[in-house]
């Protein structure tokens, strides 16, 4: 069922008077200039849409109890792409790609129970769904496979699917947690880790682990995984920690692990999605991270691992400002804590 529908063109909402021939028979609603329309209380709805001063679009979606909804975007009302999947309640999401698109349409559909919530990335073989958990931990699903990155306490993985592939960046306890790996790993799940992590594993865990040193790569379940350098004075010697460049359905994803503003990251090429650490003193400052982002120019970047040693959080709003709009880089700020 299509629950709701609205359209955005540059800074001007398309007036509903010009829309009915597009919408006839869809059973949808139109929100014009942030005005609210509803079908009925049981339907998915967009109660508010707001164009921000930077031309991003802040979108609210209300989903009924015990329901999951997939929000999609289109530029032509014919071809639709997944944007994000959410659970019941009121969710506010910002479309940071809106300033780069002359025309954006939005709709929502109910999806089956058990569907992983999170952002959607289109690949050559279906959507990749990204679900932030906490700190450096996140989960992705793609093509029937579930991928974990640095699953560690105190993050909660209750209700999430078991991991077919688990990536571990280094041996620090907020990245490598043998107990959590044991809980989230599927029966036939495999692990990729650096040698320093492998050395501290149990015999049983070693049996399902592939060791990658910086510069090495492997292909598991149709997913290409390359270990790349990650280091600074807190993460040494060089080679003991991994970042990863993972190719999934033709999309290249970079997971930084814990690293400083190193030349190897600045030199990365053709990264579609980047997860970049931003905290002090252990990784990068906001200024360093923004400079690195502008150097390798990922299409989408998720700042993560942004809780500082003193329990404050890095200023991600300032990060977005420093990255700027010179290049079409989406800085996606999501809930990690």
* Total DSSP E strands: 21
Radius of gyration using CA atoms only? 21 Å
Please state the structural category. mainly beta
Q: Tally the helices: what do you get?
A: 7
Classified by CATH, the class of the largest domain is: Alpha Beta
How many domain units?
2
Descriptive key words:
mainly beta; Immunoglobulin-like; seven-stranded mixed sheet; 21 strands; 2 domains; 7 helices; eleven-stranded mixed sheet; Metallo-beta-lactamase, Chain A; 337 residues; single chain
Describe the structure.
This protein folds into two domains: 2-115, Immunoglobulin-like (Sandwich), CATH 2.60.40; 120-331, 4-Layer Sandwich (Metallo-beta-lactamase, Chain A), CATH 3.60.15. The chain is 12% helix and 38% strand. It is built from seven helices and 21 strands. It has helices at residues 20-23, 178-184, 195-198, 203-206, 263-266, 286-296, 316-323; strands at residues 2-8, 45-51, 57-63, 68-74, 80-86, 89-95, 104-111, 118-123, 126-134, 137-142, 145-149, 163-167, 185-193, 209-211, 217-220, 223-229, 242-248, 251-255, 273-277, 300-304, 330-331. A hairpin with a 5-residue loop joins β4 and β5. α6 runs parallel beside α7 (316-323). It is globular, with a radius of gyration of 21 Å.
């Amino acid at each position: 069922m299509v629950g709701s529908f609205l359209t955005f063109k540059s800074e001007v909402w398309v007036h509903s008077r010009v829309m009915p021939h597009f919408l006839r028979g869809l059973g949808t609603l139109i929100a014009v200039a942030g005005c609210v329309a509803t079908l009925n209380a049981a339907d998915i709805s967009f109660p508010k849409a707001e164009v921000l001063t930077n031309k991003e679009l802040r979108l609210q979606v209300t989903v009924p109890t015990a329901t999951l909804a997939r929000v999609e975007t289109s530029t032509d009302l014919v071809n639709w792409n997944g944007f994000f999947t959410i659970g019941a309640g009121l969710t506010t999401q910002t479309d940071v790609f809106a300033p780069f698109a002359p025309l954006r349409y939005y709709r929502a559909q109910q999806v089956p129970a058990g569907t992983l919530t999170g952002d959607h990335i289109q690949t050559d073989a279906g959507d990749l769904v990204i679900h932030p958990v906490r700190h450096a931990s996140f989960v992705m699903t793609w093509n029937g496979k579930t991928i974990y990155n640095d699953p560690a306490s105190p993050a909660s993985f209750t209700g999430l699917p078991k991991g077919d592939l688990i990536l571990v960046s280094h041996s620090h306890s907020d990245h490598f947690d043998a107990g959590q790996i044991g809980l989230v790993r599927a029966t036939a799940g495999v692990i990729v880790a650096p040698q320093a992590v492998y050395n501290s594993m149990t015999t049983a865990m070693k049996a399902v682990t592939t060791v990658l040193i910086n510069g090495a790569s492997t292909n598991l379940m149709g997913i290409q995984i390359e270990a790349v350098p990650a280091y600074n004075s807190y993460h040494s010697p060089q080679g003991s920690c991994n970042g990863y460049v993972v190719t999934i359905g033709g999309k290249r994803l970079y997971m930084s692990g814990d690293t400083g503003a190193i030349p190897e990251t600045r030199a990365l090429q053709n990264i579609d999605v980047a997860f970049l650490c931003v905290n002090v003193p252990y990784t990068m400052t906001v200024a360093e991270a923004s400079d690195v982002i502008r150097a390798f120019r990922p299409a989408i970047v998720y700042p993560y691992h942004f809780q500082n040693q003193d329990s404050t959080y890095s200023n991600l709003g300032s990060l977005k400002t420093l990255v700027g709009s010179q290049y079409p880089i989406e800085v996606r700020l999501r809930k990690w804590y």
